[in-house]
Amino acid sequence: MTGRVPAIILGGTGYVAGELLRLTLGHPRLELAGIASDSQPGEPVAKAFPHLAAACGDLRYVSIAEAAELAAGTRRSAVLAAAPHGVSHKLIDGILKRAEAAGAKPSVVDISADFRFAEPAEYERVYKHPHGAPARLSDFTCAVPEHLDRAPTPHVAHPGCFVTASLLATVPLLKLGLVEPPIFASAVTGSTGAGRSPIAGTHHPLRHGDLYAYNALTHRHSAELNALARAATGKDGRIAFVPHSGPFARGIHATVQAALRKPLDTAEAVAAIRGFYAGRPFVRVLDEPPRMKDVVASNYAHLSAVADGRTIVVMSVVDNLVKGAAGGAIQWMNRLLGFGETDGLTAPAPGWT
């Protein structure tokens, strides 16, 4: 497409929405049409995101109904949804119905879990409530951008941050036939991954200076991780996933380990993964272990590997709010709209965060 495309952000007061807003305001091809919050319509956006005040100016939140009218009022628009799980499907379904009735064709990228599963029964099994728009599931594809060149559907569901970091390390191992399942994945996330509303697990005095695992082997993202690895490779990785809570705000460090099918040393393992991601602008495969601070607040992922002839370990670091959420969503939106994949996403990590 030529020209700028109106962008509408849903779920407008959370951390991911703030990153969508920051990235959209700096995007060369997207033009912010509105950011929606049903809890704060009419309120200044800078009140929720004071660090964006210079860019937001006097921008105010619109209601979901107003967002639907914005999507219906233009032939093509970009809808970036950061509403919570269990809420997003109803909002998106309503906006698409209103747009379709008006002959408009918005492109949607959803960051919640609501469109990550192909079957409503699987969603209900994992999230413990019925899907609110099961007829829409076939309109969405879920994949890490680096693992699918083109979405076969009009809309995309972006995988979660844990899943993105873990899949970047896991998919090459399965796709290249390097390992024998099961695969063991352990990932440590920062407190922003739990969202903006304070809960015991993210309360700073409890989290600071501490490190602990939670929901080992039973975390809800285990099902998504296994399903998406299978979709990307055609193989069952039997991935055993253990998430950890880290004493920092942003970033994820994932460590993936498996038994090799044939002997490899470290140099061969790194070369194999580097070759797998050749031409992928946001993935860098390093010779040394990756560090989170080198990617935090950017859309880049850094990977590395170690092998001893019997076992391979792949380490992956991403920013949970950008590559694992808002940045990955805009990367997909760039593709859906025919923009350059890197448009608006090439700013490097600030470092020393």
Question: What do these coordinates show?
Answer:
The structure is a single chain. With 353 residues, the protein is of the alpha/beta class. It has two domains: 5-142, Rossmann fold; 162-320, Dihydrodipicolinate Reductase, domain 2. The protein is built from eleven helices and 13 strands. It has helices at 15-25, 45-48, 53-56, 64-72, 88-101, 120-127, 161-175, 204-207, 221-233, 266-276, 322-336, and strands spanning 5-10, 30-35, 78-81, 107-110, 140-142, 155-157, 179-189, 212-213, 239-245, 252-260, 283-285, 301-307, 311-318. Strands 8-9-7-10-13-12-11 form a seven-stranded mixed β-sheet. The mean pLDDT is 95.
Number of helices: 11
How are the strands ordered across the major sheet? 8-9-7-10-13-12-11
**Quaternary organisation:** single chain
Provide the CATH architecture of the largest domain: 2-Layer Sandwich
CATH class of the largest domain: Alpha Beta
Low confidence ranges: none
Structural class: alpha/beta
What is the first-to-last residue Cα distance? 36 Å
Under CATH, the topology of the largest domain can be stated as Dihydrodipicolinate Reductase, domain 2
Taken together, the total number of domains comes to 2
Annotated CATH homologous superfamily of the largest domain:
Dihydrodipicolinate Reductase, domain 2
| Portion in helices | 25-40%
Q: Count the strands?
A: 13
Strand content: 15-25%
The string of secondary-structure elements, in order, is EHEHHHEHEHEEHEHEHEEHEEEH
Largest sheet: 7 strands, mixed
**For the CA atoms, what is the radius of gyration?**
20 Å
Q: What's the overall average pLDDT, rounded? A: 95
Overall geometric form: globular
